[in-house]
Amino acid sequence: MISLKTFCSEWKIKGNKGRFFMFFGGLFLLFALIGTLLPIIPQVPFAIISAYFFSKGSTRIHFWMRYNKFFGRPVREWEDFKVVRPKMKVIASLFMLMGAIIGHSKLGLPVAYSLDAIFAASIAYVLTRRSSIFSFLS
User: What does the longest C-alpha to C-alpha distance in the chain come to?
Assistant: First the structure.
């Protein structure tokens, strides 16, 4: 487990650019951790984004993310093969549809329509990614 002490010691070593990547890596890691507790927040996309930022800011934390019990497998599959498992595609699409429905019930129409556009683009992106590592190898 990466400790706060490790994170802080790496923060001191990095310059402004490294701190930028470490800050956003930590922010998205926090979102991913919240996603493990609240099922309406997707953890895997936030973990992948966090791993990207840590790959630029901290190799030690990036390595930890790649081999983490909760985030490791999806992060490795995405980074190595750009693969999203079918189960994750279905779950992500369903939660985005639920978010659009909640948005229409809670937000005004112009905002709800822009939210629909974002969700539609996100769903299209997720559904067009490969589903198997074997499709990459063939």
Answer: 47
Cα distance between residue 55 and residue 32, in whole Å: 16
Closest CA to 18 of 27, 30, 10: 10
CA distances from 30 to 13, 22, 125 (A): 22, 12, 24
What pLDDT, in 10s, does the model give residues 99-131? 788 878 887 778 888 888 888 888 888 888 888
Residue 130 φ/ψ, nearest 5 degrees: -60, 150
Residues 54 and 101 sit within 8 Å (Cβ to Cβ): no
114 residue type, one letter: S
Domain ranges of the chain: 4-81, 86-133
Written as six digits, the tokens of 112 are 């709800």
Phi-psi region of 122 (alpha: psi -120 to 50; beta: other; left: phi over 0): alpha
For residue 17, list its beta bridge partners.
none
Task: List 83's β-bridge partners, or say none.
Answer: 130
Residues with Cβ within 8 Å of residue 6, at least 6 apart in sequence:
60, 61
Q: Across the strands, what pairs with 130?
A: 83
